[in-house]
Amino acid sequence: MKRAIFFAGAAGLALTSSLALAGGPEDLLPPMFRDPPPQEAAPTPTPAPTATQPVRPAQPVPPREPSGGGEVVQPIPQAAPAPSFGPIALPEDFPSLEELEEMEDDEVNDLLGLRPKFDIPAAARRAVARVGVIDAREGGFPSGSLRNQPGALVSAALQATDGPIVSRWGHILLRRALASRLDAPRGLDPVAFAALRARSLNKMGEGAVARSFVQDIDGSEYDPALAAAAFDAYLATGDVLGMCPVARLQSDLADTPEWELLQAVCSAYLGEARSADRRLQRAYGTGVADEIDVRLAQRYAGAAGEGSRAVAIEWDEVETLTPWRYSLARAVGENLPEELRTSLGPAYDISDVLIPATPLLQRVQVADTAAARGVLSSAAMVDLYSQLWASDRYDAADKGLPAQLREAYVASSPEQRLEAMRGLWGEQRDYGRLVLTAYAAARLPVSEDMQDDAAPLIASMLSAGLDRNALRWGSVVPPGSEAWALLALAQPDRNGNVDRGAVDSFLDDDDSEGMRKSAYLLAGLAGLDRIDNADFEGFSDRLGVNFLRQSAWSRKIERAGRLGNGALVALLAGLGMQGSNWQQMTPRHVYHIVRALNAAGLTAEARMIAAEAVARG
After folding, report:
1. Is residue 83 very low, low, confident or very high in pLDDT (cuts 50, 70, 90)?
2. Alpha-carbon distance 207 to 104, whole Å?
3. pLDDT (0 to 100) of residue 103
């Protein structure tokens, strides 16, 4: 908006300048200076008095009345009388002089509105343009991908992306799009665009990425929506103090109990212990915040160095956990009641993984959720398990999972390594554990003796994008099997369509609920253009699925794919994959997503999403 006003003003300035120059130079002098009045003849100088003549004081000359025909000289202005002010009415709750003297500078600045607007020099300020974490040269989308798109469309897609993504690879793709350095779409304010992206990252569970994202924006540019998204990101990662620069610079961005407590905590870490303590006491005494929230803030503020008073945390009257309570409890090392912790959803499991202060054993226990979602990579999972294995704080009973993972890598025979992987997967083949064993599976030699486990081994490798390693198993898997289906979708390059008989065999052997795996296979093959049109139509009728049915969403994502706009396809694909499990995903959505991604040049992501659908269907 500011830029629009600037350019409009510049255009107006250029127009007025051209009009002035069209008639030649303009004389800016007032008329009286262009045509001065005729001057009177200079008086004859009076000779200097001699010594015998007494010197007489000059007589005052009475002022001469202006004549009707001459110019009037502007009289010297007289001093204006001093203004008279009446009594100034102060707010009823305005502090007394004694209270003002006891206040810290920070409190006085807040009271009188004396905070500076900027906290960094002008030369170091950053424009709110191309905000993001990764550049196109680092794997992000081109900065102009959304520049010419309607702001209403992009805004609607981001506002609707308010939860987890069912697909791990869909999550990774959407995270890449949201974190790219992008120009704002047409008609959408850059700060509002940044706030929407940070909010979506938080809703996906990507608190760490959202935190890095909001740090790319100067605190003076924040608005309430961006401040709320940033605060959520800092709480999700246990970095409460990370919000302090913005909270101190713009203390009026929010009006919540947590925001008031944050102000006090920030004061404590700036050495204003008395101010922080008074604020916290006032928040509790006036009922602004609940006791548990104030006590946690007091414990956190006390760690600043000057707070020696012990603070007892009582959970007896607490019925729910909020992000503020959860984050501060983890940060100060306070044990959470089991009955409160077990009632929380997967979002808090992901926060446990992201908060470094969470006990290591608990981070490992909930890491499967983060891996299945796409928040953690396979390498990050292995690192986390390795930390637990090497830790001296835990005994052997707590290291059962790391011990199994170690066997999956270093057992003396391939059969023993496979057996260790089976133990990690469990009977239900937990997808987070498949992510964990991806590199161990890639180390196994191809063997017909392991043919029965080829499908989970291939799915494990594909969860980390190890398609080249997975394709080694193509020589031993039978056509029409689940392992064959995964490889048919994961192949980077394929000459010709898949065999109709193999697809028919897969449908015959499919025992999944509602033949969902078959429907996902058909959606992926058609989206990648790897099946004959007649066969696609025939199998669609057999499954009773209308893949070609259109909607407003499908038309938009297909058009974005035809235009090669990968970033817009990624946003719309994330919108179409909203949900907490694959039961909420339809094969028709998979078909349109894979087709649009393939058309936009994102074939690798299309292949991985299609294979994941079959593996998790």
Report:
1. low
2. 34
3. 63
d(CA 126, CA 119) in angstroms, rounded, equals 12
Are 520 and 494 in contact by the 8 Å Cβ rule? The answer is no
Same domain, 157 and 228: yes
Residue 2 lies in a domain: no
Domain annotation covers residue 312: yes
With a cut of 70, say whether residue 120 has pLDDT above it. Answer: no
Q: Give yes or no: residues 503 and 459 share one domain.
A: no
| Residue 486 and residue 452 in one domain | no
Mean pLDDT in residue range 322-349: 91
**pLDDT tops 90 at residue 44:** no
Measure the CA–CA gap between 390 and 407, rounded to whole angstroms.
15
The C-alpha atoms of residue 437 and residue 368 are separated, in whole angstroms, by 11
pTM recorded for the entire structure: 0.81
CA-CA distance, 280 to 592, in Å (whole number)?
A: 54
Read off the pLDDT band of 166 (50, 70, 90). very high
- In the beta sheet, which residues pair with residue 418? none
Are 457 and 324 part of one and the same domain? no
Q: Cα separations (Å) of 279 from 103, 262, 284, 301, 338?
A: 11, 10, 9, 11, 31
CA nearest neighbour of 406 among 424, 391, 394 = 424
Quick one: CA torsion of 232, 237, 243, 245, rounded to 10 degrees?
Answer: -150
Question: Which of 470, 496, 530 is at the close of a domain?
Answer: 470
45-56 exposure pattern, b = at least 16 Cβ within 10 A, e = fewer: eeeeeeeeeeee
Is the domain of 269 the same as that of 376?
no
Please report the pLDDT score of residue 129 as a whole number.
87
DSSP string, 45-61: PPPPP-TTSPPPPPPPP
Give 402's pLDDT tier (boundaries 50, 70, 90): very high
Has residue 23 got a pLDDT over 50? no
454-463 and 414-425 helices, crossing angle to 10°: 70
Residue-range definition of the domain harbouring residue 586: 478-617
**Helix intervals (H) in 162-256:** 168-179, 190-204, 207-214, 224-236, 244-249
Contacts of 556 (CB under 8 A, 6+ apart): 153, 572
User: Which single residue is written with the structure tokens 């200079």?
Assistant: 42
- The answer, yes or no, to whether residue 45 has pLDDT greater than 60, is no
pLDDT of residue 143: 96
Please check whether residues 212 and 318 belong to one and the same domain: yes
Question: Of the candidates 330, 348, 374, which is a domain's last residue?
Answer: 330
The pLDDT of residue 494 is: 87
Residue 584: how many other CB atoms lie within 10 Å: 11
Measured distance CA(577)–CA(592) in Å, rounded: 11
- The total domain count for the chain is 3
What whole-number distance in Å separates Cα of residue 358 and Cα of residue 238?
9
Does residue 506 sit within a domain? yes
- pLDDT of 21 reads 38
Mean of the per-residue pLDDT values of the chain: 86
Max CA separation in the chain (angstroms): 142
Are 251 and 278 members of one domain?
A: yes
Q: Are residues 392 and 287 in the same domain?
A: no
For 258-296, the pLDDT digits (tens) are 999 999 999 999 988 888 989 999 999 999 999 999 999
Q: Which DSSP letter does residue 426 get?
A: T
